[in-house]
Fold:
Amino acid sequence: MFKLKVSDAKLLRDMATAISILVDEATFKIEPEGMKLRAMDPSRVAMIDFEWPKTVFEEYECAEPTKMCINISELLKLLRRAGKDEAVELSLDEKTGRLQVKITGKYSRNFTMPTLEASEEEVPTPKINFNVKAKTTTQGLSQAIEDAQLVSDHVRIEADSEKLILNASGDLMGATITLQKGSDTLLDLEAKENSKATFSLSYLTEIIKAASATSDIATLEFSTDMPIRIDFQQTKEGKLTFFLAPRIETE
Structure:
């Protein structure tokens, strides 16, 4: 059994929103050291790797490791009822097996929701040697992705030692967005070799839009025609990472 409490509901709501981009039913591992989630979307194109150590929480009680599967969309309905400065407490009712959600602030309210059968699938972390590592602001990256989405449903991301280029091409229009190393958007760039890969803009847009609420900085890592890894820097030692498979282009 466990009891978790965050003092700011927005923190939990933003993270749940980011998770909901890929999965409807999320199986969390709740351990004495913290809470984790690693899952793939139903199409197995994208993966999320999330971790919050117990230090993120105002209160954290967990006597032994447990798994909890919940419908994220249903949880979000409750979390959206909480104001920014209101606290949220999650606990498991031992008798009913239901999740208890307590929101306190202007007034107190208690909700219960069912838990689902926890997934036993172990999702491994992709083992990839990345040739490019780019550190960007989430706001700047989000705007660049939105620019590309104006003309196409996919984008080719290219990098050399000095710049990151987003190329999008549709039936009628095209777009080239260039981010220079050291600019206000591209804070740092390392490239072992020139690399390029193409990705779905529908996935990228949703991931970056949702995760940007949790972080001001994103780190992209990729190699030619390999999955991209996007880390969203967390302020309290947490981890929020997405992997997205490339769109293989045929000549």
